Amino acid sequence: MTAPIRVLIVEDDTVDRLACRRELTKSHLAEFVVLEATTGREGLQLAALHKPDCILLDYHLPDMNGIDFLSEMAGADQISTPIMLLTGAESAAVVAAAIKRGARDYLGKDIDGQYLKLLPTAIQRMLREQKLAEGKRQAEAKFRSLVEQIEAITYIVPLDGEGITSYISPQISKLGYSPEQWLADPELHARQIHPDDREMAMRSIENSRKGGHSLRQEYRLMMRNGETLWVRDEAKAVSDETGRYVFLQGILLDITQSKLAEHALRKSQEELRQLAGHLERIKEEERKRIAQEIHDELGGLLAGIKAYVSVYIEREARSGRPPEPLLVDAVALADTGFQAVRRVITDLRPSVLDQLGVWAALEWYASQIEKRSKLQCTCIIEDDAAAIEPDSETSTMLFRVVQEALTNVVRHAEATTVSIHVALDDAMLVISVQDNGNGIDSARQLTRESWGITGMGERARYFGGEVTITGKIGEGTCVKLHLPLEKLNSE
């Protein structure tokens, strides 16, 4: 059963007061319990004593006017009681002043008394609005209580009008501003965004506001003291009961420390990459030096041994004596040694790479793979790619990546064919090594046994390139190296 509505009528005119009572008591819309006061002071006392659900207030009273009454109610902290002002011929300015002082609604008295018929409905409407307003206040209080306990800056931006921020949490003080200062200047947010980030950030904010889209972006905000704060701006459009988006509710989360850590990590990775590149250069130089020493020293020794033994055998033959079998075997061993020396030198640093360039070196290496294994190895270099002449270090990187890829094919793929293809794709040099072997999955690429794969990627990244590996079990593997043409320096 619905509780009766307790109405306090503050009206000095007996006729009007009784008319209001009569209209309310006979209403079928609700049950009304009526209290009456003939002066403002009496009305204030009854309001404090009985806490009515609403008050019908005449503007002209013997001891005060309606504005004074509203001021007294506010001073007594009773302004939450909804008050309807009953006006006669008062101006709109009077009504506006009353609303500003806390009146919830107003109803104009007419000569015919038609306003009386509207009283029950007007009171119910006013109470509904009061209930909604109270619910909103409680929700806002709860919202503030929650958001003001978190570190993030919380804000609300209505989606109608100009999209001016209507709420900002006290955490805005982190930027050096009070909520009042922030809300008083609609352009302050845009001005405090770092100049390098402003256009991008404001465009995203505007698109989110106009389209009711969720927002997630990172940018820099300038603090009042000139320092820079990195924030993650996340917002979601909130809709009303009809599904219409009414405001954006978001947070500005301080991510400065994570950005600094991210920057430090990137710097560390770059330093490691530079170190790896430096070590690669040292390793290549050492390989080149060792290959040269083997060629000059060991190769020279083997050549001398073979020459001495061959001269002796020839002298013996001229004398009509058969060559000593051990000496013949020694010459054969010297030849085998020569082949081993050439193979070691080639593995350390193919001379063709320095003499004829990387493309000839790849074709030569493909032929060597065919000779050393059962693989059918083809190498196709498109004309546009062949016209490019990378510098020495880049050529070495390209060759080593392909060499590592082919080594993996020979050792692990169980393939019968493998192809090397070099071409240009837009502004990229693309080298692919495709086999028809047993394939590789992503899990295998991440094992500790896959340092060769990791090395390929690091070599490429040092030169601004990228290595990708795709494969399917039973269908082969494709290793691709992408290198921007702008990173290729001609000698």
Automatic annotation (TrEMBL):
GTP-binding among keywords: no
Alphabetized UniProt keyword annotations: Kinase, Phosphoprotein, Transferase, Two-component regulatory system
A Pfam family reported for this protein in Swiss-Prot or TrEMBL: HisKA_3
SUPFAM superfamilies (UniProt xref): ATPase domain of HSP90 chaperone/DNA topoisomerase II/histidine kinase, CheY-like, PYP-like sensor domain (PAS domain)
CC per GO annotation: membrane
Residues bearing PTM 4-aspartylphosphate: D58
Matching InterPro entries: CheY-like_superfamily, HATPase_C_sf, HATPase_dom, His_kinase_dom, PAC, PAS, PAS-assoc_C, PAS-like_dom_sf
Residues covered by the Histidine kinase domain: 398-487
The keyword Kinase is assigned to this record: yes
PAS domain segment(s): 139-212
Name of this chain's protein: PAS domain S-box protein
Domain PAC: 215-267
Lineage, uppermost ranks: Bacteria, Pseudomonadati, Pseudomonadota, Betaproteobacteria, Burkholderiales
Domain Response regulatory: 6-124
GO molecular function, one term: protein dimerization activity
Species this protein is from: Solimicrobium silvestre
